[in-house]
Design a protein that fits this description.
alpha/beta, Rossmann fold, 7-stranded mixed β-sheet, 3-stranded antiparallel β-sheet, binds S-adenosylmethionine, S-adenosyl-L-methionine, CheR_N_sf, CheR_C
Length: 258
């Protein structure tokens, strides 16, 4: 594949520097996408992207799908911290948490850091899943670049990361709090008994029908009183129909519990 041509086009069209992403996975992703839109080569592909704004937008989404960072939308994680204290009694209960579509692990490790902050002597269970084995391997490594930790407060950065040259490695103490597993939100069955499910920045790629199906399964997977935390553009307009209450703009609660 002539990656250079696509790289130049993407830089010009979307302002994204693909050389920062250059990896087998990205090439595989682009090839998959090219196949889907029926492009036989790079020139044909670039023509399609130039002519069809809708496909062009989808391609951009496709490219950024693995992007993640610690404390993504920081204010919302601060809100989550308050809601965990308010609703889940983490001092008393050992919480079972699921970070669904966790990508490179920044999200489940953020949860582990928050819980360590509020209950330093307690070990909660965090399951982190993704459909993509490559990102799961990266997540298990727990090594991040500056951009991915840019929202981490300095004191937390010092406490929970080891800086190795220009990279940031999550400390073992936090790493071992998270179990990573491959899981497809569409095809696989869901575990149950969760106090908190975090699913952010993935359902935007799914149809409304699939979204509803996933939210229904999350509802079943949550304990009564459990919380569902979604992405900053993903408020669930039909949350009542699905059985949830609103705990805040991006946090929903399954009624019941204490
Ligand atoms: C943009 S990332 C979101 C990462 C993290 N949740 C966040 O908000 O920063 C989307 C992730 O969803 C994963 N994904 C896509 N389709 C999926 C599916 N059907 N089941 C599980 N994960 C999926 C991708 O592999 C990718 O890692």
């Amino acid at each position: 594949m002539d990656f250079d041509k696509i790289e130049k086009f993407v830089a010009k069209e979307y302002g994204i520097n693909l050389s920062a992403y250059k990896s087998k996975q990205l090439i595989r992703r682009i090839e998959n996408f090219m196949q889907r839109v029926g492009a036989k080569n790079e020139i044909e592909f670039i023509n399609i992207l130039s002519m069809d704004k809708n496909i062009s937008k989808k391609f951009l989404d496709h490219l950024t799908i693995n992007v993640s960072e610690f404390f993504r939308n920081k204010d919302l994680f601060l809100d989550l911290e308050r809601k965990i204290k308010e609703h889940l009694n983490p001092e008393k209960n050992t919480l079972k948490i699921w970070s669904a579509a966790c990508s490179i692990g920044a999200e489940p490790y953020t949860l582990a850091i928050i819980l360590d902050k509020i209950t330093p002597n307690k070990k909660h269970n965090i399951l982190a899943t993704d459909i993509d084995q490559t990102v799961l391997e990266q997540a298990k490594q727990g090594i991040y670049n500056k951009n991915e930790v840019k929202n981490v407060d300095d004191d937390l950065l010092k406490k929970y990361f080891i800086q190795v040259q220009d990279k940031y490695q999550i400390i073992d103490e936090i790493k071992k709090r998270v179990i990573f597993k491959k899981h497809d939100l569409i095809m696989d069955s869901y575990e149950t008994g969760f106090d908190l499910i975090v699913c952010r920045n993935v359902v935007i790629y799914f149809t409304q029908e699939t979204k509803n199906e996933i939210y229904r399964k999350f509802y079943t997977s949550l304990k009564p009183g459990g919380l569902l935390f979604v992405g900053a553009t993903e408020s669930i307009y039909n949350y009542r129909e699905l059985g949830f209450e609103k705990a805040s703009t991006f946090i929903y609660r399954k009624p019941g519990g204490n």
